[in-house]
Structure formats: structure tokens, C-alpha cells
Amino acid sequence: MKKLGIVTLMFIFVTALGMAQTWSTGAASQSTSNATSNYTINVSYKTGIGNYLVDANGMTLYYFTENVDGKTFNGSYLDFWSPFYVSKIVVPSSLNPKDFSVVTGGDGRPQIAYKGWPLYYFINDKKPGDTNGEGVKGLWYVMKPDYTVMVGTNPKLGNYLVDANGMTLYYLDGESTSTIKCNGMCLSFWPAFNVKSIVVPSGLNSSNFQIFKRPDGSSQLSYEGKPLYYFIRDSYRGDVSGNNLKDPFGIWYAVTF
User: Fold this and answer.
1) What is the pTM of this model?
2) Which residue from 10, 46, 116, 214 puts its CA 20 to 30 A from 131's CA?
3) Mapping DSSP to helix (H, G, I), strand (E, B) and coil, where does residue 210 land?
4) Do residues 204 and 214 touch, judged by C-beta distance below 8 A?
5) What tens digit of pLDDT does each residue of 122-165 get?
6) Closest Cα partner for 163 from 92, 244, 104, 239?
7) How many helices (H) and strands (E) does the chain have?
8) Backbone angles phi, psi at 176, to 5 degrees
9) Residues 72 and 111: beta-carbon distance below 8 Å
10) Range of 203's domain?
11) Do 209 and 132 belong together in one domain?
């Protein structure tokens, strides 16, 4: 009986230990689930769109091309495009919280920006997964986390190409991927623009872009056969100080379309 009692006690102990481990595992799973549901900004996927930013409820977030300089707007647009704001940034590991900032919206209230682009809702999106604001007037696009080239809008230039941070992209007149004119010192003033992948808004055709090899073996992105560059004197997003500029290397233009 004594031996049986010891065996019984051991069985009870092992069983209890197993139950404790099960509860522990269950608690961890629950914690992970709660953490996921607590994201204030997340990434969703939709066929034909790809990855794009959404709020905690799955509602689509957009950017406005005229906000290329990082400033917001006021007026009638606010009747259709509501500024997005959350008091705390909680994002999945695929996003960098440092890419988000708080700006002053056109209505005077705080607004969240991604890589300097203020974010908005569209009034005609009624449920998670709706992307009815995509491409509206060629000025509004879903905000993707991995854009490499974006559309900016300037009052004088119209729509033009910028990088993901709103910096203007240029081309040198008479240059092509097969005829590179900007070499040596030229690159000190006009750094070559390169990306590892081509992700663009729906207002652009990705087939018009190409990653090619320069004569020195480095990579560069081109648009419609024109190699793309930054201009060193553009200090802030939205600057277009290199447009229509003539220098010893030729005449430079922002890439408009």
C-alpha cells in the first residue's frame, strides 16, 4: 500500500505538471493573439494592390500626392479624406515605428504620417478591405509600406517622381541607359538613384522602370530609359531646385508625367 501510495502521488504530480505546461502554453498563445489584435497600424494584403497600411480595424490608409512636402491641407478635401490619428504607435515587426511621426493636420488636430506622408481615410470605404480611394484624381493612393518610387504633385510641375521619402528624382537631357553622361564629379552633385525592387503606385506603370548596370558596375534605376538621380542641393522633401537647371553636365529635369 505504501509503494502504491508513492506511485499514485508521482502520477498526480506528473499529471499536474503537464496541465501546468498546457496552461502556460495556452496563456502564451493568448498573449500573442492579444498582441496582434492590439496593433494600431498594421499591414494588409489585397490582390491587385499588394501590401498596404491599415488601422487597427483593417480600414485602408492613403496618402495625398500634394503632401509631398510633408504639409497637410485644409478645406473641402477634409469632407472626404479624414486625417488618421492614434495616440500610440503599435506595429508588427514588418514595420519600423521610427517611420511614423505626428504632424499637425489641416483641421489643427494631430495626424499620423508615414515616412513624412500624412495618412488619411476615404469616406467611401465602408468596410475593411475597401480601397475605393485608390487612384482618385491621380492624387490619392493607398499607402504601401514598401514603395520605392512615389508620385508627388507640385503646383507648377504637376505630377512628378519622388522616392519613398518625398525627395525629387531627376534625369539628364540626352542621357539613356546605354549612353551614360554623368560620371565622376557629376555624381558628387547628382547622386545616382538605386533601389533593390520596384514598387510604385497604381498611377505609374512598373514596366517603365528598370534596374540597370552603370559602366562602373553599380546599379541604378531608370524610367522610360532615362537614368534617375537626386540633386545634392535639394535639402527638404518636395524641393525641386534641380528642375530645368543647366550646368556643365547638361540640362536637368524633374521626371514629370
Assistant:
1) 0.85
2) 116
3) strand
4) no
5) 999 999 999 999 999 999 999 999 999 999 999 999 999 999 99
6) 239
7) 2, 17
8) -140, 175
9) yes
10) 149-254
11) no
**Same-domain check for residues 108 and 156:** no
Let me know whether 166 and 214 are in one domain. Answer: yes
Phi, psi of 224 (to 5 degrees): 50, 40
pLDDT digits (tens, 9 = 90+) for 35-82: 346 999 999 999 999 999 999 999 999 999 999 999 998 888 899 999
191 within some domain: yes
Domain count, the chain: 2
Same domain, 135 and 165: no
For 37, phi then psi, to 5°, come to: -70, -15
Residue 190 lies in a domain: yes
- pLDDT band with cut points at 50, 70 and 90 for residue 12: very low
* Across 211-230, average pLDDT: 98
Supply 208's cell numbers. 517603365
The pLDDT score that the predictor gives to residue 37 is 60
Domain end point (choices 117, 142, 167): 142
